[in-house]
Amino acid sequence: MKIPDLVPDLVALQAQRLLRRRRVVHGAVRPRVRAGAREMLCFGSNDYLGLAADPRLIAAACDGAQELGVGAGASHLICGHNAAHEELEKRLAAFVELPRALVFSTGYMANLGVATALLDRHDAVFADRLNHACLNDAALLSRATFHRYPHGDVAALERLLAASPAHRKLVASDAVFSMDGDIARVPELLALCERFGAWLLLDDAHGFGVLGRGGRGTPSHFGLRSPNLIHMGTLGKAAGVFGAFVAGDETLIDTLVQRARPYIYTTALPPLIARALLASVEIIEAETWRRERLAVLIAQLQSSLRGGRGRLLPSETPIQPLVIGQNDAALVLGAALEDKGIWVPVIRPPTVPKGTARLRISLSAAHTESDVAALVDCVNRLQ
Known about the structure:
- The chain has helices at about 5-15, 55-70, 75-80, 85-95, 105-120, 135-140, 155-165, 185-195, 220, 250-260, 260-265, 270-285, 290-305, 325-340, 370-380, and strands at about 25, 30-35, 40, 100-105, 125-130, 145-150, 170-175, 200-205, 230-235, 245-250, 310, 320-325, 340-345, 345, 355-360.
- It is α/β, with parallel strands linked by helices and about 375 residues long.
- The protein has 2 domains: about 15-50 and about 290-380, Aspartate Aminotransferase, domain 1 (Alpha-Beta Complex), CATH 3.90.1150.10; about 55-285, Aspartate Aminotransferase, domain 2 (3-Layer(aba) Sandwich), CATH 3.40.640.10.
- Helix 9 links the parallel strand 8 and strand 9 (about 230-235).
- Helix 5 runs parallel beside helix 6.
């Protein structure tokens, strides 16, 4: 029997201008990178605080490699849970001001781990329609009944929660939505969860390090603490390294250690990564100028980018999406910017809804005001 032919699927993606291609980047993550044969001013990285190439993190990783080697050697529950992992988990818990934290290899794995450990087919998940794909996959893999409510529609969520007969309920939401850059209505979400006895799984991938007191994240931004809150943060964006964590109460973390399959059945992070992350958390907390610089750059972009074919979405975060609409128009503008030596990723469906193709501008504390001025000048000329 012949195997299925995949070529027509690829041809169809190409015809719709939806075929994705990778680009090889040479060197460290910085505002100016070499992609292929040319240097580009890049506005695509999630390195919001400019820490990915920080010499102190590099030194911590090198020292960790010298002392601890380059691999953990096993999963956490076999013999791979190093003292560096333990120290990092305690530091993260203290930083986000929650009782315990558990380190995962990625944010995707963390969300899968939480949902599948806490829920089964008798339960229900309630998710914002613009959530990241990993939260949707987590809901599906949990086997719980999966409800999606319109983006930011707290009243619709309330109706769904009130009507649900589920044994356990979990509301899942991005804290900062990765393609729009807006912040979820977290106080209202948490109030509903407390009222209906639900957990709130808050994916703080783009808020941790950027929002809140000392960069503690979106719950701190709103001044929120609750046993209903499950705080997931990633460590490869603002923190500049790799990995993720889930923070919450003692019982939650104990349950994840026993039941979260993406935690149990994978090799632990290299301990050298934990050492680099310990250095990163210290810098995030101490160097407030990084978040202050971001605020200046965001204000500069929003005040100087003129309306044209694109529409800049309202966002107080480093994610500044310029919605163009059709795929072809977005690709043309992205290519024109590349010709000028400026790289802004073009985001198309299915990552974003049909008809909302966009340039996803990501700002970093490592950018300068001159960098932003160069971007704005080019976009204003080309629109």
